[in-house]
């Protein structure tokens, strides 16, 4: 009887496969970039509509920022567009020690605060009142009348204001009826802030209601029905349902208004003010115009403008952060 010298492996076991070179892991392409390219290829017609607005902001908003370098360089008309000589913070120290600038800066703070306090809540109140109007014809008439001043030119707005408040205008004629002497409104500094804020409310209140009326349409009617079942009156419904419903829109517009706090209406003030009203009417923008354009002090004006822009940037970032922490709504 013969015996085999090679033993078979036990049943159920196999030899391990021969070791080969390691297979490198498959490198996956980033899904974000791929989805972005796919969306661009699919909706290129829609994206092409944004080309002209982006070019506008690039040419008229971002490229001019390069000119801020003349705030640190001495600029001479006819010379280099970026200045002739580096002077550092010389122009910054000049306007920080100039009492005229601080008077103008104070006027700007007053004008911006009054505009924010009085012009910001008026569109909200007007939108809430229009939302309660049930007669459609009356609602459309009030909307049309309130929207109309927004479409008028600033020159026309200033002209109407000057004609109405002139010494022989309708306001002074009404004062004569009540036995009061005519008041030169446009020549007295104490009246200028009231005139400006009043004209600003008249011009912007109606247009500002559009966003709030659009926000009111997003509120679910079932919330009002549930509130009426619980016995809530109209004021309670407005306070607990309507105002919280439009709060994101209110916060967004408030942050934007705070960001432009120091950018008070340059055109309207330039058309309405005069040397007699400089103590209360002269703001940073008009002071920049007289200093830079009329006096050819471009570097000095650029330093003031850069200071104003930095303050506006700090204000909008602070307002956005405060809104995020307190209300939970912010721009970014």
Q: What is the straight-line distance between the termini?
A: 91 Å
Q: Average pLDDT, to the nearest integer?
A: 85
**Helix amount:** 55-70%
Strand order of the largest sheet: 1-2
Number of helices: 17
| Low-confidence spans | 1-7
Which structural category fits the helices and strands? Answer: mainly alpha
| Main beta-sheet strand count, sense and barrel state | 2 strands, antiparallel
Q: Which H/E pattern describes the elements?
A: HHHEEHHHHHHHHHHHHHH
**β content, as a range?**
under 5%
Taken from the alpha-carbon principal axes, the silhouette is globular
- How many whole angstroms does the radius of gyration measure? 33 Å
Summarize the structure.
The protein is an all-alpha fold and 332 residues long. The chain has helices at 31-42, 44-48, 51-62, 90-96, 99-119, 121-132, 136-147, 154-164, 170-177, 189-216, 221-229, 234-245, 247-259, 266-272, 278-281, 284-294, 298-326; strands at residues 73-74, 85-86. The chain has a two-stranded antiparallel sheet.
Characterization of the model:
This protein is an all-alpha fold and 332 residues long. The chain is 64% helix and 1% strand. It is built from 17 helices and two strands. The protein has helices at 31-42, 44-48, 51-62, 90-96, 99-119, 121-132, 136-147, 154-164, 170-177, 189-216, 221-229, 234-245, 247-259, 266-272, 278-281, 284-294, 298-326, and strands spanning 73-74, 85-86. A two-stranded antiparallel sheet has the order 1-2. The longest helix is centred in the last third of the chain and has 29 residues, at 298-326. The radius of gyration is 33 Å and the shape is globular.
